[in-house]
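Appendix B. One record, verbatim.
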Amino acid sequence: MKRINALLIIACMAISATGCKNTYSSPAIQEEPANPVSQEVEEAPQQSSTLRPEIYSSKEYIFEEAYVDGVYSDPYLTGHYDMYELSKETKEAYPDLATAIEDSMNARKKKYDDIHAEYLDSSKQLREGGEVNTFILDSDIFLRRADEKVISYVDQRTEYAAGAHGFTRYESYNFDVQSGKEILLADIVTDKEAFQGKLAQALTEKYGASTFNDLDSNLADLSLDSYTWAFDANGITFYLNEFAAYAAGIITANLPYDSSFFTQDYMLNSNEGYISEIPLYFPDSNHIDIVDTMDEGISISPNYDSDNPDLFWIQSLNISKDGQSFTTDDLYVWKVDAYIIHLPDGTENLMLMTTGDSDFNCSYVYSLDGQIKLLSNDYYARGRVGAGDDYNEIVPADSAKVAFANRFDMLSTFDGTKYYSLESDGTFTPLDKYYKTFRSNEQDLVSKMELTVPVVDEAGDETGEEVTLPSGTHYSIIRTNGKDEVDCTIEDGRIIRFHLQDSLGEGYISDIEINGVNAEDIFETLWYAG
């Protein structure tokens, strides 16, 4: 029996979006009747969809190695940028939105490809002059709100292009889900003077007047289309760094939806829950400044491993809100994603999703109502769609339907995705019976012997039929119950089920049996990760 150990590397990075184009539909040209008569044609009203949009994210990685005269040195450029795509169902429900997002992502790709080329050229020129600097270009997208009214996200762009330090900047993108049009701040602000006065008050109360230089005057001179802002579950958040010193870090302020100077067209639906990803950045280079979050009144800052300061492994996190503080238990991870969960009953929780050694994923939910405390800890990663290494992650947006993935070692190593509802007590209620998996055909199981197995339907129910399949049959894993059942498609499209037994009861993958025969003796290759 040959077993291939494939190392599965899951890299979690986020990427931001650029370039927004309004779209419109041209009316169809109608033929005139043979004897034209003046008449009005009444257009049928366009019905609004109520589907909550689902968004997939992927990453484009940047790495330009330096290889001169047969010797490798520090790379010229490293980084990544995120890309968004709507699910098939969302595209069908909102075709204009689908066009707008696609246009935005195309513009985003061109933008970062252009910066990539510019930075690579600059890094090479410096290298020729004897100055060795690895340029950095990272762009992460953070979804702030997605419902049947609005999709809103921010692009957090962190760069280092030689010099004393890097910098972090924000851009924002806000789309009307029904029309696909970009929402401008001028579309929702009804009184500019009142808006800017309230924004100045919020900034002064949060950071102190000494942080800013002539804030009122500077805001008065700023046009509405110059702001970086995004819808979220608490209101509208503004990202402002123009009027504060560099050392002040990221400046944000949130104004509630019911402010008198905002239109009420994009208010939240009170009976729905929301998940907003917090723009959170921890450095992986000495060149980049540490930026924690003051988003929505929450501060999250890292404690690094003091014995290995250059590795930037996060030992634990400090969480603060409304005068309460909390330090997590030892995490020892290299990546953290943070989400605010707003539930319809008013409960507010914080969810952290971490990636650590061997790309091991964990999720933690903390209560933010009153005393900060840990509510639950599970082994979840963001849900996935796609085959093999060509997969997208499902971006959390709706607390009533959020996708999580688990890793399984059942005839192969694979990730299975299931949808859950997030509860007020920090627990997760599964909405699906099975975990769905997406694998490439190259990872099919191929039998070395005849097998008799039950047939199941699309819903996962056994039909009562059994089929005997010959040696050499290809089996594609499509789902599992996560315990003792693995469903596969075969060449004719039918779905069959393997009932797995662990004869020794010790849980080792080498002990898995089907029909009393060890799986290693049944299949040519079992694709387990190392």
